[in-house]
Amino acid sequence: MLIAAQTCSMNVALATPHPRYVYFNFFSERLNREIPIDEDQKSTSLSRLLFRSRVRNMVSPEKLLYKQPSVLVGRTDVVSVTPWLAPIVWEGTFDPVLVDNIYKPMNLTIATTVFAIGKYVRFLQDFLDTAEKHFMVGFNMRYYVFTDRPHDVPSVNLTRGRHLSVIQVPGSNRWQEISARRMEIIQTTIERQIRREADYIFCLDVDSKFHARWGPESLGRLVAVIHPGYYEQTRDRFPYERRPASTAYIPMDEGDYYYGGAMIGGFVEDVYTLTKVCQTRFEEDAGNSIEAAWQEESHLNRYLLYNKPSKVLSPEYLWQDFKAKTKEVKVIRFSGVIKNYADVRPNV
């Protein structure tokens, strides 16, 4: 597995190994340069991993002017808090000026993982270009692009404080296998690298674009997004895994929301725990010749049912281009693009 670590903006496409990249073997020997390894990585077992993430106080700058909040006036067409008192983030439920001024002085680094396997690499240019315009603007960003086609990673102009690493991973003849393997790869990359480099992490789907602000209002210990196809449905209509033999099983009379697998976020430590548990359960199912209905999304929903997210993002943060905007969705921030699955997937 090779990784190319970008330390500045990309100016040319990767037809050959880029001279500004540092190439090394991700899990064993370093190839062409000494790569710093933290002392905690040398001496700490994986059961005692150290993470950068920590809870911080919500400090507002003095003399900051923003609209006075009200306990009587606000959105009445949507629910903005879960039964366990986690916020559900909609347009009109937060003040972007106030939120930015609280979080930006913290000097946070956000990790973003994205998988561009096979023909899905074609979506990477628009994903990255729109992310640079709308996603966590003004924050330190580390993109981790997992691909089996590292030389097809496009040229992207990254702003100061934002970096991109290309990590080569194997391809597959089954999209289900690619989907299922994602948890394992994210878990391993957190262990080896991300935990030392970032405070928060978002795991996003590459076949998507950003259309409007996605900022620090989305940060939390464990963050999930409500799937746009099921937010108007009752739990008995959710496509949970319904077979009791699966470790992703959810009974018909249980369930809060149906969460989209195209976005997982939170403290690096909390997302690490999620991926580790889901991967263990996936392997247990595989040992019993079971593949959950929607692979990692099924295991994600099972995990989040019993490990409640601390913040829930509304479907504004995960729309679908083929869906018409509904009256309660005032802003589409992130949306899956229209595509021909027969063309981009190795199997349908």
TrEMBL record:
Give the top-rank taxon of the lineage listed in the UniProt record for this protein.
Eukaryota
**Which range is the signal sequence, renumbered to this chain?**
none
Which residues does the record give as an alpha-L-fucosyl-(1->2)-beta-D-galactosyl derivative binding sites?
227, 297
Q: Mind telling me which Pfam families this protein's record contains?
A: Glyco_transf_6
Alphabetically list the UniProt keywords. Answer: Glycosyltransferase, Manganese, Membrane, Metal-binding, Signal-anchor, Transferase, Transmembrane, Transmembrane helix
In the record, the note on similarity to other proteins reads:
Belongs to the glycosyltransferase 6 family.
The listed locations are: Membrane
One GO-annotated biological process of the protein: carbohydrate metabolic process
Name a single GO cellular component: membrane
From the Swiss-Prot or TrEMBL record, give the protein name.
Globoside alpha-1,3-N-acetylgalactosaminyltransferase 1 (FORS blood group)
Q: What's the chief localization of this chain?
A: membrane
Example GO molecular function term?
A: hexosyltransferase activity
What remark does the entry make about the cofactor?
Binds 1 Mn(2+) ion per subunit.
Residues bound to Mn(2+): 205, 207
Q: Which organism is this entry from?
A: Oncorhynchus kisutch
The record gives the membrane topology as:
Single-pass type II membrane protein
Show the stretches that span the lipid bilayer: none
Question: In this entry, which stretches build a coiled coil?
Answer: none
List cofactor names only.
Mn(2+)
Q: Which gene encodes it?
A: GBGT1
The answer to keyword Lipoprotein applying to this record is no
Q: Which residues are involved in binding UDP-N-acetyl-alpha-D-galactosamine?
A: 115-117, 120, 205-207
- Tell me the active site: 297 (nucleophile)
